[in-house]
Structure formats: structure tokens, C-alpha cells
Amino acid sequence: MAKTFVVHPDFEALKSQLQSAIDGFQENQEFVTRGDRNVIKKVTIDGETYNIKKFKTPGLFQGFVYRFLRKSKACRSFEHASRLIELGINTPYPVCYTEIFSGGLRESYYISRHLDYDFDFRVLNHNPKWPNRNEILRQVARFTFK
Fold first, then answer.
1. I want to staple 2 with a disulfide (CB 3.0 to 4.6 A). Which of 72, 101, 113, 137 is the partner?
2. Mean pLDDT highest for which of 22-36, 40-54, 123-137?
3. Which CATH architecture has domain 2-115?
4. Which alpha helices (H) appear in the chain, and where do they start and end?
């Protein structure tokens, strides 16, 4: 079984603790969100809170694609967050990601610093009567298009 473990240079000193947090993911019960595809849990390391995202286990074909043809979602999350920060866009700071392969990709995890937020965007999807909903969606679309 092959494994990739990439840690941001700012967090190299926490490498073993980060790996332990990933190894203990199943036992951790501090859910941030529990979706059909992905699960995010919170963990505290040296007084700092981090989010660990476990991506859905891909099927045989997708596992092959993520091993040989395309970067995993964990890798892309790490790279995209790094780029957003370079551009001055506030996003949870990327800490590390890991990929576990057995033939194809079997498991992947992404860890970022926990970021408290004022607003959950998903509320707009589920509540069409949310105040200023259309204006908020227009502004997000404008920002995203830039």
C-alpha cells in the first residue's frame, strides 16, 4: 500500500500529530458536517483547532483515475487553498493532505485550520425566502466570475 503525505512547511513540526489525527479519524466524534460523500471533523492539536475532511472512497474506475490521470480532491483542495491565500482571499489555511493507494486511490484526507464563519452558504440553497437571497447570490456569482 502506497501513501502520500504532504505537509505545508509552516506545519512541519506537527507532522506526527497530524498523521495521528488522520489515523484516529474514525474514533473522533466531533463532526463539523456529515454528508453523503464527505465527512468533516474537528480536532485540536497544541491548542489550535483544525478540520479534517475525509473524501468519499472512489470506486474502482475513479480510484484508477485519481492514481494515474488526475490529482485527488485532497491534493486539489490543498493547492487551491494555497492559491486563494496567495491572491489575498480569506479561506481556511491549508495544513496537509494525505492519499492512500491500493491499486488506485482508496482514501484521501485534507486538513485545514478551522475558520469560524458568520454565514453558512448552504442556507441559501435550502431557504428561498432568506432575506436578500438573490442579491447575495448575484454578488457571489460576480465574485466567482472574476
1. 101
2. 40-54
3. 2-Layer Sandwich (3.30)
4. 15-23, 60-68, 73-86, 122-126, 133-145
Helix (H, G, I), strand (E, B) or coil at 110: strand
Instruction: List phi, psi (to 5°) of 82.
Output: -60, -45
- Cross-strand bridge partners of residue 52: 41, 111
CA dihedral 57, 58, 64, 66 (to 10 degrees): -80
Could you state, in order of their start, the residue ranges of all structural domains in the chain?
2-115, 118-146
Q: What's the whole-model pTM score? A: 0.84
Q: Which three cell numbers mark 117?
A: 464563519
DSSP run (H or E) holding 108: strand 104-113
Strand partners, 39: 34, 54
| Residue the block writes with cell 487551491 | 80
Q: What percent of the chain has pLDDT over 70?
A: 99
CB proximity list for 52: less than 8 A, separation 6 or greater: 21, 22, 25, 28, 40, 41, 42, 43, 109, 110, 111
- Retrieve residue 71's grid coordinates: 490529482
Computed over every residue of the chain, the mean pLDDT equals 93
Per-residue pLDDT tens digits for 57-69: 999 999 999 999 9
